Amino acid sequence: MNKRQARYFAIGSTLLATLVFLGLTIDSHRQFPKLTNAQNITPEVTLGKNVWHKNNCINCHTIFGEGAYYAPDLTKIAQQRGAPYLRAFLKDPSKFYDEQRHRRLMPQQDLSDADIDGLIAFLDWVSKVDNQDWPPRPIMVTGLGAAGGNAASPAAAAGSAAAATASDKNPVALGERVFRSAAPACTACHSLTPGADMAGPSLAGIATRTQETLASPNYKGSATDLATYIRESITHPSAHLVAGAMYSANGVSFMPNTYQKDLTPEQLAHLAAYLATFK
C-alpha cells in the first residue's frame, strides 16, 4: 500500500467509524424513553435527582457505573432494600455504619422528609431503568466477604465443593447456590463471618442462636424448630424481629418479603439446610 492508498484508507475508515458511531448514538437515543421509563419521571423523582446532585452523593456512591466506589453502588438499592430501610437510613445513617468497625461513616445530611421521599422516589426510578444488567453484582464496602474465611462449617464447605458437580443432589450444596444466586442475593445483606453485621445480621452461628431464640419468652413467631425458624425468617421476616434499630422500623423488617413467591419450596428447603450448618 503506497502513501496515497494509505491516506484514502485512513480517511475512509474514519468516515465509516464516524457513521457507525452516529448510527449507534441515534439508536441509543431512540431507545432511551423505553429503557428509562421516562413516562414515570414525576416531580418527586425530579426533586430526588436534585437532592442527589445537591448533596454530592456521587462523590461516594455509584449509579449506572458512574461515580465513586467508596460507598455501595445504588443502582438497584431500592429493589434490594426497600423504602422503609432507605427512609430510616437517610434519617440517621449512624445507626447503620459504625466508623470504628467499618472504617467509614456516611455523613448526616439532615434531609427533610420531603427530600428523603424524593430521593427514595429517584432511587426507585433508577432501579427500574433497563440498564442491561449493569452493574452485574452489588459492590461490597465492608471488606468482609460473604464466605468469611473459616465461617462456613465443614458440611457447608463439603456442599460447596460438591456443587461443582452437575449431578450433585446435596441439599446443603444446592442451598449454597440459592444463598448466592437468589434475587436479591442473600450475600448483599448478610455475612457469614462471626460479628460482621452488614445491612442484616451475620448468619454465622444461626443454628445456636435459633435455639436460644425459640426458648425465649420474647419470641413472637410460630416456628418450632431450626428448619421452620429459618424458613419463617426468609418468607415472613417481620414475624419475629431481631433486636437492633438497624434491622427494622415500626415493627417491619427491612428484609425483602418477596422470597416466598420468588423461591420454590425446594429452594427454601435447600436454603434452610445450608444455613442450618452454621453452628
Give a summary of the structure in a few sentences.
This is Nitric-oxide reductase subunit C. Residues 43-127, 170-279 form the Cytochrome c domain. The chain has 279 residues and is mostly helical.
Q: Can you walk through the features of this model?
A:
GO terms for molecular function: electron transfer activity; heme binding; metal ion binding. Keywords: Electron transport, Heme, Iron, Metal-binding, Transport. It comes from Hydrogenophaga taeniospiralis CCUG 15921. This is Nitric-oxide reductase subunit C. The chain is an all-alpha fold and 279 residues long. The chain has three domains: 36 residues; 103 residues, Cytochrome Bc1 Complex, Chain D, domain 2, CATH 1.10.760.10; 122 residues, Cytochrome c-like domain (Cytochrome Bc1 Complex, Chain D, domain 2, Orthogonal Bundle), CATH 1.10.760.10. 48% of the residues lie in helices and 3% in strands. It has twelve helices and four strands. The protein has a two-stranded antiparallel ribbon. The chain has a two-stranded antiparallel ribbon with strand order 3-4. β3 and β4 form a beta hairpin. α10 crosses α12. The N and C termini lie far apart (72 Å). About 10% of the residues have low confidence.
